[in-house]
Amino acid sequence: MEKKAKIIATLGPSIYSSTKLNQLVNQGVDAFRINFSHNTKGIDKIVSKIRKIERTTNKKISLIADLQGVKLRVGKIKENSQRIKYDQKYIFDSKNNIGDDSRINFPYPKILKKLKKGSKILIDDGKFTFIVNSKKGLAVSTTCKSQNCFMQSNKSVHIPNFDIAFNKLTSKDKKDIKTATKLGCNWIALSYLQNDKVIHEARRLIKKDMGIISKIENKHALKNIISIIKATDSIMIARGDLAIDIGHSEVPKVQLSLIKKCSQFSKSVIVATQMLESMIENSTATRAEINDIATAIFQGADTVMLSAEAAIGKFPAQAVSTMSQTILSTEKYKRQHIEDFKNSIISNKDPVKSILLSVKDIAYNPDVKAIIVFSNSGKSAKLVSAMRPAAKILTISPNINVSRQVSLLWGVQSINSRDAKGWKDMMSISKEIIKKLRFIKKNDFVIITAGLPFGKAGMTNMIRLYKIGT
Fold it and tell me: Residue 424: left if φ>0, alpha if ψ -120 to 50, beta else—which one?
């Protein structure tokens, strides 16, 4: 049985080899994330490896360019990691020198000026805490208040109750969008956005066949969540920074609320951060981590993500396998209790969405084995996926980048094929695909959706119920 929910693995040295990448794809990875907050030198060679694996496995693979945004980060440090002892004095300054076990570069002079005695500086998604003791120019002296603290290069910084406006893309983000386009990325992820302004700006800079993922990481984004969901293509619940900003105990209910809202508006949702954190060092997951993945799937997430577990972890293959097995087990239960998990979708008088909503009820018939969606732009594929039909979803697009983009969506098997020239050609393409699918037998039914006239994006207006062998 194939899983419906998808898995993202973050690229890093632990999985750069062709062998590891291939192993992860075979175990269930559907997309790879490039973290542009870190050094991306040589990433084009890794992308080439992924595209080669895509050809040999005949499985479309999404590439996600995760932009840095205004997320604060420390600079580089000697050997990429230094142990900082509990109660040790440590300095954050504006010097561009490589850091060590006594100081590190914090390249934000305006923030250094505003820090006060007693201010907290939280490092690496809030794992480690430093308290400000004193200031001298653009150097802040702090005390480490965390046990087993390791300061690492380019790790995130959060300062509680310190707001930074972010209403436009940074120069680095704009440069990275150009790089992502050259690499053939299918999605860009916007970090630390607070409203929909950055989404609209990014939309003007990316290609039409690229999607936008909006990362929800702060209380400002939650305040503007409806406008963000409407403007974006997908939401990522980035629970690390979000927990720091709103409090750890608030995150579970926010996660559920966001998944429900995305479902209503037919937008995909990714749950991320520390899903299998212990597997960075250990070959097995904790029961709590398994439950965390299962909860996200029960709630209706399209995708779950591995960060450091894949990028720098000691057991990336085991982490992917654990995630896949948990998804399969959870989805089996959901199929057996399908009435408990049917979602509600707002059509908002959208005629295309209303047409596709009728597919959902037909597809719950056990004789309907698949839904074939002809989708030039990917919009119809996104809507059908959001409906969570019981039947298998096969999306067909002549655009390889659209095929790769929608492969990240729940339940979608993406096929890159020529565009249909007319009704008869559409049926001919559909029959060619059906012949290759072993699970479809004579007298089974397949739903076919498309837009007339062919070749015009966003115009799905036709549904056909086709009986195999007729």
Answer: alpha
CATH number attached to the domain at 351-467: 3.40.1380.20
253-264 residues labelled b (16+ CB within 10 A) or e (exposed): ebbbebbebbbb
pLDDT at 458 > cutoff 60: no
The span from the CA of 283 to the CA of 4, in Å, is 25
For 263-275, the pLDDT digits (tens) are 989 999 999 999 9
**Average pLDDT for 13-23:** 97
Q: Determine if the pTM surpasses 0.85.
A: yes
- Are 7 and 320 in contact by the 8 Å Cβ rule? The answer is yes
* Angle subtended at Cα 194 by Cα 190 and Cα 198, rounded to the nearest 5 degrees: 50
Instruction: Specify the pLDDT at position 163.
Output: 75
Going by pLDDT thresholds of 50, 70 and 90, the confidence category of residue 48 is very high
Contact 36, 45 (CB under 8 A): no
pLDDT digits (tens, 9 = 90+) for 311-347: 999 999 999 999 999 999 999 999 888 666 666 666 5
Q: For the segment 274-288, what is each residue's pLDDT rounded down to a tens digit?
A: 999 999 999 999 999
Q: CA torsion sign, 151 to 156 to 162 to 164?
A: positive
Q: What is the pLDDT of residue 116?
A: 92
* Parallel, antiparallel or unpaired: strands 81-84 and 149-152: antiparallel
201-209 contacts, C-beta under 8 A, 24 or more apart: 201/168, 201/169, 202/169, 202/173, 202/177, 203/231, 205/169, 205/174, 205/177, 206/177, 206/181, 207/181, 207/401, 208/377, 209/377, 209/378, 209/399, 209/401, 209/402, 209/405
Whether the per-residue pLDDT at 456 is higher than 70: the answer is no
For residues 97 and 17, give the distance between their C-alpha atoms in angstroms, rounded to a whole number: 32
DSSP state, 99?
B
**Distance, CA of 255 to chain centre:** 14
Residue (of 174, 162, 180) closest to 118 by Cα position: 162
Class of domain 6-68+167-335: alpha beta
Nearest by Cα to 132 from 112, 146, 151 = 112
What are phi and psi for residue 466, nearest 5 degrees?
A: -110, 125
* Domain ranges (residues) in the chain: 6-68+167-335, 72-158, 351-467
Determine whether domain 72-158 maps to CATH 2.40.33.10.
yes
pLDDT band at 461 (very low <50, low <70, confident <90, very high): low
| CA angle (270, 194, 123) in 5-degree steps | 75
What single-letter amino acid sits at 239? R
